UniProtKB/TrEMBL annotation:
<keyword id="KW-1015">Disulfide bond</keyword>
<dbReference type="InterPro" id="IPR024171">
    <property type="entry name" value="SRK-like_kinase"/>
</dbReference>
<dbReference type="GO" id="GO:0016020">
    <property type="term" value="C:membrane"/>
</dbReference>
<dbReference type="InterPro" id="IPR001480">
    <property type="entry name" value="Bulb-type_lectin_dom"/>
</dbReference>
<feature type="transmembrane region" description="Helical">
    <location>
        <begin position="466"/>
        <end position="494"/>
    </location>
</feature>
<keyword id="KW-0723">Serine/threonine-protein kinase</keyword>
<dbReference type="InterPro" id="IPR017441">
    <property type="entry name" value="Protein_kinase_ATP_BS"/>
</dbReference>
<dbReference type="GO" id="GO:0030246">
    <property type="term" value="F:carbohydrate binding"/>
</dbReference>
<feature type="domain" description="Protein kinase">
    <location>
        <begin position="526"/>
        <end position="815"/>
    </location>
</feature>
<dbReference type="InterPro" id="IPR036426">
    <property type="entry name" value="Bulb-type_lectin_dom_sf"/>
</dbReference>
<keyword id="KW-0547">Nucleotide-binding</keyword>
<keyword id="KW-0430">Lectin</keyword>
<feature type="binding site">
    <location>
        <position position="560"/>
    </location>
    <ligand>
        <name>ATP</name>
    </ligand>
</feature>
<dbReference type="GO" id="GO:0004672">
    <property type="term" value="F:protein kinase activity"/>
</dbReference>
<dbReference type="Pfam" id="PF00069">
    <property type="entry name" value="Pkinase"/>
</dbReference>
<protein>
    <recommendedName>
        <fullName>Receptor-like serine/threonine-protein kinase</fullName>
        <ecNumber>2.7.11.1</ecNumber>
    </recommendedName>
</protein>
<keyword id="KW-0245">EGF-like domain</keyword>
Length: 817
């Protein structure tokens, strides 16, 4: 027993040591600016005073909510333009004008209305003063010790935690209700008693938490000492869970920016994502200072698919469809025949525009008054299925739902028809899951989605038209009959050709791509005037397109393909469909396509910060931490293409020019999936050499199968370029040994002279441990023998420090030993 007790004591001492090392600034180092008893603030448009921290970074006071004409007691970042709120007290009970926040002479912190009634108060006794600290923590303390807090806002978080703040077991972050409302929302983050950090949806009214839609998987059922018991947010922008044995579970990836230059916050957003944000402390080039918060990390990665269970309405509310936008956020739209419950809240769910009646007198008229429309890849996995049966044809499911007054949606999946009642919860669009939803709407409803929605009963209408034509023929003169026969034949032929064309494009329509005409893209690019770049697949132009629904305009990159494989038409459709079904934060998203005559064009989202080549090979060396984060992002994107797509995609041309950077400098891989447009079979075959000189794997030049390991090789070269901020071949180098980067890098690694690779890079030179780690990973990637190269998933794990790296052998026998 004594030994067990001693072990537990050691575990706790280790835990305290880790916490001490994580929290860089101890409490005694913070400057205190005391707010004396009797001080007060007034909620008034004529008085915008607040209690500020010594540095001026934070302030506490009243924030006027002009859409409600009421006041919120809050703490906010005071030096940045948008004054971002990080804590609030009375979101569900907003204050009127002339309400007062007072630190009374008795040491009570109270928010009262104009009549003196208490709206909110901090429970504490023996208070001597208050203070707004530079950490963003508002405290009430006594005179006994400056580090003894009788009450602090950090112990009562709202939706945000700040660096140096901790969350204990069962302590909760609660989201806001909507983007602009500070009322209690329906999402919670909590460190569970068993030690896992979870995100859950809370019932309405609040009280019951449903099944988690995100779980950190820290807890170990076989060893309670491995379970988490405290969440710590350190000043460098990293979130940890401290285990009971003192070990740390890192929730976020490596640090992205220097904490000296950036503010950080971790917020449970109103849309259910727990997000780590950073914001520069001073204006800088290329950053919109008014909207400079950017997402560094978030969970879950796909909230649409993560939300499951039998209860709750899902991220978008009942009777809606959830899909991810380009930033990984849920985007919501109502089903056809439905409209928003609240026109100002697209996340609040939808209701029927015309309620279907089950009155006995109306049952016989269902097929007359309703029609079915289909939506590809739409599912409600947790909604109630009240009937299911195997199908012989899609029309069977269509007719069954159409004549059933309880059926609103029928889902066809895996040869089964599933009939569903209202309400429909957790709706999502899953591009990688094949199936179809049939949605019943009134015939006079004109709602139409151009991202895959189509009428189901077109064939029936065509048959009705044919019967009508034949009836006219038999009732008319012989001459007129011949004329009508000829006209009808032409009409039927044209209709057939049109339907044939639509059917051949169905796989693309299933992916919700927009189909452009060549003239539309010619107009969007002003005659293909502004060229963004050229590559093996064609030329890229900058363009501006208009959203057909909202009327909004967005900048796009339009790739005009110039070389296609044999049977290029078929290959174009197939590969465009594969590209469209990929979705990852480190891939450039395909917006649409054009397939018209000889013209083959692909429309991508526009990346505002250009290519990695221009970023890394510029005059000055970019931030070291940012370069590392970009490298890891590229690795994750390639790993997704290799291992997580329905169809494996080998890029075949990984290089800095094919890595683009979005507005937040997140790496986005482009040109993936296009290799098959230039060659008919790229996977495990002996074929023509593709790729770019310097990045091409050795097996391209030999009679060896080409596998995903060619991308691993190219990534290794790219990794060295990111570390050294130089190209892989430097012809103008004065030193012969430095011309080929891969050879030189191995010589430096073997000779323990890695500092030569990062000369004039002060940030990297102070982080030699990670420099060595990245170079070792690169050495494994560029092994001449493909079987020695790790998978991209393992490469990412090595870079992130999840797994150890063994000493790499010499990559090539031709490198000097």
């Amino acid at each position: 027993m004594k030994m067990a007790s001693m072990q537990i004591s050691i575990y706790y001492l280790l835990s305290l040591f880790h916490i001490f090392t994580i929290l860089i600034i101890p409490t005694h180092s913070q400057t205190i600016s005391r707010i004396p008893l009797g001080s007060s603030l007034l909620a008034s448009p004529k008085d915008d005073s607040s209690w500020k921290s010594p540095s001026g970074d934070f302030a506490i006071g009243f924030r006027y909510l002009d859409d409600q004409n009421l006041y919120l007691l809050a703490i906010w970042f005071d030096k940045i333009p948008d004054k971002t709120i990080v804590w609030h007290a009375n979101g569900d009970n907003l204050a009127q004008e002339r309400s007062k926040l007072e630190l009374t002479t008795h040491g009570e912190l109270k928010l009262t209305d104009p009549d003196g009634g208490t709206i909110w108060e901090a429970q504490s006794t023996n208070v001597s003063y208050g203070s707004m600290l530079d950490s963003g923590n508002f405290i009430l303390a006594d005179n006994i010790s400056s580090s003894r807090y009788l009450w602090q806002s950090f112990d009562h978080p709202a939706d945000t935690i700040l660096p140096t703040q901790e969350l204990q077991i069962n302590e909760v972050l609660s989201s806001r209700d909507t983007r602009n409302s500070f009322s209690l929302g329906r999402y919670q983050l909590r460190l569970m008693l068993e030690g896992d950090l979870v995100l859950t949806v809370v019932s309405n009214p609040p009280g019951v938490s449903y099944e988690p839609y995100y779980r950190s998987k820290i807890a170990d059922d076989n060893n309670t000492m491995n379970s988490g018991y405290r969440v710590v947010f350190n000043e460098t922008g990293s979130l940890y869970v401290v285990r009971r044995n003192g070990a740390l579970f890192n929730l976020t990836s490596q640090n992205v920016e220097s904490w000296n230059d950036f503010y950080f916050r971790a917020t449970l957003d109103f849309d259910g994502l727990f997000t780590l944000y950073s914001h520069p402390k001073s204006p800088r080039d290329g950053v919109n200072w008014d909207e400079a918060w950017r997402s560094v990390w978030y969970e879950p990665q796909n909230i649409c698919s993560a939300s499951t269970g039998d209860y709750g309405r899902g991220p978008c509310g009942f009777n809606s469809i959830c899909s991810l936008d380009s930033n990984g956020r849920p985007s919501c739209v109502c089903l056809p025949g439905f409209k928003l419950l609240d026109s100002s809240n697209s996340y609040g769910g939808c209701k029927q525009e015309i309620v279907q009646s089950c009155d006995a007198n109306n049952l016989g008229k269902l097929r007359e008054n309703y029609e079915m429309r289909s939506l590809n890849n739409a599912f409600w996995p947790s909604s109630q299925n009240y009937e299911r049966f195997p199908l012989s044809s899609e029309d069977e499911c269509n007719r069954s739902c159409l004549g059933d007054c309880n059926c609103i949606v029928a889902v066809i999946k895996d040869g089964i028809c599933w009939k569903k009642k209202l309400p429909l919860s957790n709706g999502r669009n899953e591009r990688d899951t094949y199936g179809k939803a049939l949605i019943k709407i009134p015939k006079n409803n004109n709602t139409f989605w151009d991202n895959g929605l189509e009428k189901v009963n077109n064939d029936e209408k065509d048959q009705s038209k044919l019967v009508l034509v034949l009836s006219i023929l038999f009732g008319s003169s012989l001459v007129l009959n011949f004329v009508l026969i000829a006209a009808s034949s032409i009409a039927i032929f044209v209709s057939y050709q049109k339907n044939k064309k639509l059917n051949t494009s169905s796989s693309l329509l299933e992916t919700n791509l927009r189909v452009f005409t060549f003239e539309e893209l010619k107009e969007a690019t002003n005659g293909f005037r502004e060229e963004l770049g050229r590559g093996a697949f064609g030329t890229v132009y900058k363009g501006v397109i208009t959203n057909s629904f909202s009327g909004s305009r967005s900048i796009v990159a339009i790739k005009k393909l110039e070389i296609l494989a044999e049977e290029g038409d078929k290959e174009f459709k197939t590969e465009a469909s594969v590209i469209a079904k990929t979705h990852h934060k480190n891939l450039v998203r395909l917006v649409g396509f054009c397939e018209e005559g000889p013209n083959r064009l692909l429309v991508y989202e526009f990346m505002s910060n250009g290519t990695l080549a221009s970023f890394v090979f510029g005059i000055s060396k970019p931030d070291w931490n940012k370069r590392l984060q970009i490298a890891i992002g590229i690795g994750r994107g390639i790993a997704y293409l290799h291992e997580e797509c329905t169809t494996q995609i080998i890029h075949c041309d990984i290089k800095p020019q094919n890595i683009l950077l979005d507005e937040s400098f997140t790496a986005r891989i482009s040109d993936f999936g296009l290799a098959k447009l230039l060659m008919s079979d790229q996977t495990q075959t002996n074929t023509m050499i593709r790729g770019t000189k310097g990045y091409v794997a050795p097996e391209w030049f030999r009679s060896k199968p080409v596998t995903a390991k060619v991308d691993v090789y190219s990534y290794g070269v790219l990794l060295l370029e990111i570390v050294c901020c130089r190209k892989n071949v430097k012809v103008e180098s004065e030193k012969e040994e430095e011309i080929i980067l891969t050879d030189w890098a191995y010589d430096c690694y073997k000779g323990r002279k890695l500092e030569r690779l990062i000369e004039n890079d002060d940030e990297a030179r102070t982080d030699m441990k990670r420099v060595e780690r990245v170079v070792m990973v690169a050495m494994w990637c560029i092994q001449e023998d493909p079987s020695l190269r790790p998978s991209m998933k393992k490469v990412v794990q090595m870079l992130e420090g999840v797994i150890e790296i063994s000493l790499p052998p010499c990559p090539s026998p031709f490198i000097s030993m």
